Every structure is written in structure tokens, then in C-alpha cells.
Amino acid sequence: MQALENAGPLEKQKIxxxxxxxxxxxxxxxxxxxxxxxxxxxxxxxxxxYMEKAEAHLELITVPFENKVALKEIAAYLLQREI
Length: 83
Fold this sequence. Notes:
about 80% helix, 2 domains, 5 helices, elongated, mainly alpha
């Protein structure tokens, strides 16, 4: 969605074409568009915002400290992994 919002007319058309295609390089071309439109950066910012929000909520609940640490470690791993 962010890529479409930030894309110019040519990039929007490329996105639409890629969404309808079965080309082998579809994913690589879409990733290029994500980088070009800043969608990757917007996703990174949203990820961090939600992580901070989740941590704030975690601090409010009554759970042993060790359990909170474990949840934070799992969340950090999931957010830092490369897909």
C-alpha cells in the first residue's frame, strides 16, 4: 500500500502489472519498487512504532519479569530476522 501511495504514475503502472503477472523476477522487481518509493523505510518505521507500543503494554501487565524478558527476546528476534 505504501509503495502505491508513494509511487508516481509509471511506478503505479509497474506495480499493477507485477501484481497481475507470473514473471519469475516478479519479487525482485517489486522489491526494487519498494526501495525506490520508500515503502521499505515506512515499513521499518511502523515496525518500530508497534514494537515500542507492545513493550509499553507489556510493562503494564502483571507477569513475572523473566516472562517479560523472554517475550521481548522473541519479539526482537522476529523483528530483526531477514526473510
